[in-house]
Amino acid sequence: MSTTATAELFAFQRDTEALGQISGRLGWDQETVMPAGSADQRAEELSALEGILHARRTDPRLKDLLDAASPANEAEAAQIREIRHSYERAVKLPESLARSLAALSSRAQGIWAAARAADDVKAFLPTLSEMIRLKREEAACLASGGDLYDALLDDYEPGAKAADLAAMFDRMRPRLVALRERVLDRPAPEALTGHFPAEMQLRLSREIAEAFGYDFNRGRLDLAVHPFSSGSGQDVRITTRVDEGDPLNCFYSTIHETGHGAYEQQVAPRYTLTAIGKGASMGVHESQSRICENQLGRSEAFSAWLYARLSREMTLNIGSARDLYRAVNRVTPGFIRTEADELHYNLHIMLRFDLERALIAGDLEVGDLEAAWNDRFAADFGVAVPRASLGMLQDVHWSCGLFGYFPTYSLGNVYAGCLHQALRQDVPDLDAALSQGSAAPATAWLQEKLRRHGALRSPVETIRTACGFAPDEAPLLAYLEAKFSDLYAL
After folding, report:
1. Is 257 assigned a catalytic role?
2. Which of 64, 181, 298, 398 counts the most CB atoms within 10 A of its CB?
3. Closest to 42 measured CA to CA, from 65, 62, 63, 25
4. Which of 31, 257, 264, 356 is catalytic?
């Protein structure tokens, strides 16, 4: 009986996972190629599909099947764990709320994009107010009297608590600020400048994506306002963006999204369309994008290859590979999170984390958000925000309802620091491959230690198993201090 229940449970879940992939594909289409006039219909389509998914995730049969299921191995036990977690969350949410959130997030992205382009905060505030109202309602359903923000955070980093993250950020902030101040006292390195045609950037981006393990036979690279990745298994798509005056933005956005995409592509095929056929959490996911983008992609060894490769395309204003290494790690207190250097990036996340916690708790009203953002940014970065597109309108996340997502970026940096320390110990000659434009030894190590397992283990256990020690911020901070002390002769 239990064997039959297990098989029936997994078959039911497989269809749910497939429908979820279809929903994700509609979202990818919306962000890349969907006609602008299709937004209202797409919102209705996504709402209808979310209604179907919610009905499946809350189907009364699931409880009976979960109670009767008997796992035969670790993978089956993990699948049952993940299905149960999803079911217990889903049954707390009314279908009407789930559909309302799906429809609003679809419409809100277009409203946000228009407001961002026009630097018009007021045009977005009514939509954002409605989104926060719905997210508070969702959090109240999920929290069962507990912390509202924790309930939302659990959707992206199961088991994580806002208080623990806040404590970790409090430990990190003084060392980051102190290092930043020392670096900014030194002369800034020369930036890479010139005209870099879009076609060249995209061609080289494809080459770089392949070097970092992305399989174009099961994926594609497209343009988006805000780069992202989507999908799993045999259909994983990544996006980037192009600025003809700044090719590094394109290259490193591509490497970042390649880390996400290659993670999904390299989960063991036997887990495809199962509850564990995905990344273990958004923090673990971010560890894959950040280790590729920063510890590997911004390393001196890979910078040497990139300098040689760019020099074949055009004459550069930068005269050596070492100078490009300094340029790709240039520290400036910029406004845009996705373009931030490694020292400032986590400060961007801490700002968003504190503000969205206050919004969900009701301690900050939406009408006061822009002023709160600008005041905090001036305090943390020492510069005034000149316009909303460089401030509170820059990120797509809140228009999508992704409250609780932002802190996983910094958690991913912490995880990446741990993974990089272990990787360097296991693969001491890694730089030889990176200097030839290949990240293959690193991606092979990541696949063996982490990626192939998908969500087999909890996020913390995923990192602990891969590294051999519990996740901690110390390796990240040590890496940053050593790297930037060398770069800036501190």
Report:
1. yes
2. 398
3. 25
4. 257
